[in-house]
């Protein structure tokens, strides 16, 4: 069997001030055809999974381009069309094929393209024709569109948030696509729009139980896959929102129509259950001072505060100073903040050297939502060139040159490469002992949880200013279909 795999992957915050061009893809991960590294990367799960199965089953594997950018603002037309066309050229060169498996985020928006993944899948289908099986692994924070569903034979979302199951879902995708090629199954997709947008933290009830129930339903006769597309609230597109996707097997029952009815009924039932749980799933974080009061009242640390509104993983700049300003104003220490994206401050710290004291203007450089820079006398505590951080996929994540600077008992981890907090080694490599901290502020919405929750006294999700706010009503939507709970009619 001849199999093609590749990736074009980013999440677009249409309200972010950061343009996403070709340099953003080169900074995070750009691998021309045939140059992908041996380890699994978060944004190329199907390629890794296809490699495993190709070795076991003797497939001919054709590896196309892999490209991923850190979430940011709208992708430039030049970047999107250049990378899309490179991936499609790789696909054409690999023909003839039996199967195509892609890694696509599902929430990429480019200049002139509200549904990049729908566009990619449409062009893939035009190249390979109706007989080749086409599948894609998606991030659940996707804008699941009718176009994507129509052009692909299978779409499978990660189930976990944090996304700790990339490998498992990639293997599931590859195996189901291979079974489809072999004629063992015939997937029929059914999608239901929940007419809402909700945050689904699978680390806590009731989302944990709902996701476990989804997995259990996949063991029922005729049910191939159940995915929950959480949606991405900070992407203003017509397809934004929470949806249920069920694939049933047309070969398992008396007729394809029976399979479709089974899928539609199951998707509708799950959607109704999810809608009933939405109030419990919604994240309503305390404001900055209330969160700090709650943390101090616990009497011991480290208390981890999630600065979700400045999460680079959601397209924010990662350089906001709002929580840092409150820590300093209130004299709360020892405390740590990171990662804060500030290449200029890092350069100055490296020039000065470890142990130096120097006046630095830290953070607050990207725009109004980043707050005011912190001007203070800072001590350079540690420097690590070309530092990497552990991640959910196991592959190390580049943070560039990093500096730990301290003022008034508060340490800030400064980076030259924008990224969210994933592993605790973000701090420990720079000598910050988390167990000694009263407060640890992480620039992340939820992916930090897998590594930080085990060492935290408590985790508090903070409502602060930024590009990824909890309060969606403050965002100027123009394209999203409304009403869509909790958003009123536009």
Tell me about this structure:
With 490 residues, this protein is an alpha/beta fold. The chain has helices at 22-28, 45-57, 77-94, 116-128, 146-151, 166-181, 207-217, 256-281, 288-297, 322-330, 343-352, 425-428, 449-452, and strands at residues 2-9, 29-31, 60-68, 99-104, 133-138, 154-157, 187-193, 223-229, 243-249, 303-306, 335-341, 357-362, 374-389, 397-407, 410-415, 439-442, 458-461. The strands form 3 sheets. It has an 8-stranded mixed beta sheet. A 6-stranded mixed beta sheet has the order 2-3-1-4-5-6, with helices on both faces. Helix 5 links the parallel strand 5 (133-138) and strand 6. Helix 2 crosses helix 6 and helix 3 packs parallel to helix 4 (116-128). It starts with a strand and ends in a 29-residue tail after the last strand. The relative contact order is 0.12.
User: How are helices and strands ordered from N to C?
Assistant: EHEHEHEHEHEHEHEEHHEHEHEEEEHEHE
Shape: globular
Flag low-confidence runs.
Answer: none
Tell me the helix content.
25-40%
- What topology, given as strand order, has the largest sheet? 12-13-14-15-11-16-10-17
User: Number of helix segments?
Assistant: 13
Main β-sheet description: 8 strands, mixed
Structural class: alpha/beta
Q: Strand percentage, roughly?
A: 15-25%
Mean of pLDDT = 96
**Terminal-residue CA separation:** 50 Å
Radius of gyration: 23 Å
Strands, count = 17
């Amino acid at each position: 069997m001849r199999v093609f795999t590749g990736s074009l992957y980013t999440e677009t915050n249409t309200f972010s001030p950061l343009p996403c061009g070709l340099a953003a893809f080169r900074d995070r991960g750009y691998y021309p055809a045939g140059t992908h590294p041996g380890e699994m990367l978060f944004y190329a799960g199907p390629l890794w999974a296809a490699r495993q199965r190709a070795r076991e089953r003797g497939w001919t594997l054709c590896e196309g381009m892999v490209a991923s950018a850190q979430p940011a603002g709208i992708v430039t037309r030049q970047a999107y069309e250049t990378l899309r066309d490179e991936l499609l050229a790789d696909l054409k060169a690999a023909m003839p094929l039996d199967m195509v498996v892609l890694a696509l985020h599902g929430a990429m928006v480019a200049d002139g393209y509200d549904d990049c993944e729908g566009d990619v899948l449409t062009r893939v289908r035009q190249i390979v024709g109706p007989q080749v099986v086409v599948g894609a692994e998606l991030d659940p924070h996707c804008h699941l569109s009718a176009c994507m569903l129509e052009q692909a034979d299978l779409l499978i979302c990660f189930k976990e948030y944090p996304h700790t199951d990339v490998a498992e879902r990639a293997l599931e995708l590859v195996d189901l696509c291979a079974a489809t090629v072999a004629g063992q199954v015939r997937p029929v997709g059914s999608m239901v729009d929940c007419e809402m947008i909700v945050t689904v933290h699978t680390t806590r009830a009731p989302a944990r139980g709902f996701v476990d129930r989804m997995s259990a339903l996949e063991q029922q006769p005729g049910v191939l896959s159940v995915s929950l597309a959480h949606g991405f609230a900070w992407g203003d597109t017509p397809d934004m929102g929470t949806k249920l996707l069920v694939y049933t097997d047309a070969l398992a029952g008396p007729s394809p129509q029976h399979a479709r009815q089974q899928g539609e009924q199951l998707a509708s039932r799950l959607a109704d259950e999810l809608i009933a749980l939405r109030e419990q799933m919604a994240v309503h974080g305390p404001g900055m001072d209330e969160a700090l009061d709650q943390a101090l009242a616990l009497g011991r640390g480290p208390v981890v505060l999630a600065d979700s509104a400045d999460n680079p993983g959601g397209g924010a700049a990662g350089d906001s100073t709002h929580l840092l300003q409150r820590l300093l104003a209130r004299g709360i220490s020892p405390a740590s903040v990171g990662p804060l994206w500030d290449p200029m401050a890092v350069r100055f710290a490296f020039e000065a050297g470890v142990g130096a004291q120097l006046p630095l203007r830290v953070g607050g450089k990207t725009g109004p939502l980043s707050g005011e820079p912190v001007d203070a006398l800072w001590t350079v505590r540690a420097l690590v060139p070309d530092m990497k951080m552990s991640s959910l996929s196991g592959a190390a994540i580049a943070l560039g040159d990093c500096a730990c600077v301290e003022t008034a008992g508060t340490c800030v981890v400064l980076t030259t490469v924008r990224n969210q907090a994933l592993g605790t080694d973000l701090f420990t490599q720079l000598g910050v002992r988390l167990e000694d901290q009263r407060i640890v502020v992480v620039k992340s919405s939820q992916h930090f949880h897998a590594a930080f929750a085990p060492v935290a006294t408590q985790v508090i999700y903070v409502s602060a200013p930024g590009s990824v706010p909890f309060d969606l009503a403050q965002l100027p939507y123009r394209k999203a279909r409304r009403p869509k709970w909790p958003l009123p009619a536009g």
